[in-house]
Amino acid sequence: MTAVNYQLSTEYREIGCFFLDFHDYVDKRVKDFIL
Known about the structure:
This protein has one helix and no strands. By secondary structure, it is mainly α. The N and C termini lie far apart (48 Å).
């Protein structure tokens, strides 16, 4: 694995974690709003 590929995969992983956290947060907010 080249350094560039590793850098990209690390960034994608961080972005993926961010989106998962964000989705979790939105999910909670929507449930609070509905309930």
